[in-house]
Amino acid sequence: MYQAIYHLSVGFPLPMCYFTFKELDQAQKKAHRVMVAKCGYNRNSSLAMLFGPTQLGGASFFYLYDLQGFGQISYFLKHWRSPKASPDKMLQITVSWLQFCAGISTSVFTDTDLPLVYLESNYLTSLRQCLKDIRGSFHLLDDMMPPHQWANDVYLMEIQ
């Protein structure tokens, strides 16, 4: 039931959302405690054991945040790599605007450790946070970096 029904039903809308880890953890706690007990485990079992892989003796439960992040990464790459499609064009426009608003000389998806709390796009900021959490990055062929317009131009957010 957990893998066949819960995983699929909850995992379907999550990639289009931008919840934080804390929000998703709070949302899954009640249902999770009940499902852990129904699967034959003690409700107070160690989280490391419950969320660990079966190859190491774990129960293979999953965090909703991981499911959301995996879906966001998959959808981003799928739409980014589909040339001449409407979602691809819209995504490129959005990433270009995000990069412009970031005001930095590196791609927002390459340097995920740099805190950019002023960014407006909740969805892409959530995707960026997920990449940071898994210590990942995107190296896009066209990173949408705005070029310098004049000699001695600098990126605003890098001025010390």
Topology of this structure?
Layout: H1 2-11, H2 21-38, H3 47-51, H4 64-80, H5 86-102, H6 122-133
Helix pairs in contact: 4-6
Describe the structure.
The protein is mainly alpha-helical. The chain folds into two domains: 2-65, no CATH class; 82-160, no CATH class. 49% of the residues lie in helices and 0% in strands. The protein is built from six helices and no strands. The chain has helices at 2-11, 21-38, 47-51, 64-80, 86-102, 122-133. The mean pLDDT is 86.
Poorly predicted spans: none
Q: Element order, helices and strands?
A: HHHHHH
Number of helices: 6
Percent in strands: under 5%
Measured distance between first and last alpha carbons = 55 Å
Give the number of DSSP strands: 0
Q: Tell me the Rg in angstroms.
A: 19 Å
Computed structural class: mainly alpha
Largest sheet: none
Mean pLDDT: 86
Oligomer: single chain
Can you tell me the number of structural domains? 2
Helix content: 40-55%
Overall shape: elongated
